[in-house]
Amino acid sequence: MIDNFILEEIRTFCERHVSPKIKLQLPNDEDLMDYRLVHPKALIGWIPHPNYPEDLLLELPSVMKKAVPAMVIGMDEGDDDGKDAGIAARITFMVFNPGTYLAPGQLSTDGKGYQDLLNLMHICRSELAKSYLIGDGKTAAQKPFRWGVYQKQAADYWIGWLTFRATAVVLPLMTKENLNF
């Protein structure tokens, strides 16, 4: 239950502090000239880890395409040493960019869509770095941050990831003896 709470706090943080800072292209595989910018969604889910067979991402399922642009918040694993417990949080970023629009009706398929991906990842990383405590101070996003992009990408879709350790902030136990009345 606490893992779900942490993921929800990260999702809310991304929705409030990352998404409003950037607009990205909404996919339209049928008509690449139909160009519309939207704020990315923040969702809870799981996209395969970069060590997973990457051929899975070469053809994105339609349900994933409908979510783009998006930040998908999930966890890779958890740890608990008896004193502290947390999760390895993973934010997977998905953007669509078929190329540079030179003029109405002209598209240069230049492969620079990764720049949109890197911009979104940078905004998220910067916002997390500014706010060690997120979710009204109930969750800690701990450094180090690690990030990267998948080596194989579906055409016109760009996918990357950011990982960090996240914990629920534990308040000290208040007993009758340590309260001053």
Provide a brief overview of the structure:
By secondary structure, the chain is an alpha+beta fold. It is built from 3 helices and 10 strands.
Spatial strand order of the main sheet: 3-4-5-10-9-8
Shape annotation: elongated
**Most strands sheet:** 6 strands, mixed
Number of domains: 1
Q: Helix fraction?
A: 10-25%
Low-confidence stretches: none
Number of strands: 10
- The gyration radius over C-alpha positions equals 19 Å
Count of helical regions: 3
| Binned strand content | 25-35%
Distance between the termini: 34 Å
Order of SSEs: HEEEHEEEEHEEE
Identify the notable features of this structure and list them briefly.
single chain; 181 residues; alpha+beta; STM4215-like; six-stranded mixed beta sheet; two-stranded antiparallel sheet; 3 helices; 22% helix; elongated
Structure in words:
With 181 residues, the protein is of the alpha+beta class. The protein has a single domain (2-168), classed as STM4215-like, CATH 3.30.2000. It is 22% helix and 35% strand. The strands form 3 sheets. Strands 3-4-5-10-9-8 form a 6-stranded mixed sheet. A two-stranded antiparallel sheet has the order 1-2. The mean pLDDT is 83.
Topology (elements, then pairings):
Elements: H1 2-18, E1 24-25, E2 37-38, E3 41-44, H2 62-67, E4 70-80, E5 85-96, E6 100-103, E7 106-108, H3 114-130, E8 133-134, E9 139-149, E10 157-168
Parallel strand pairs: 3-4
Antiparallel strand pairs: 1-2, 4-5, 5-10, 6-7, 8-9, 9-10
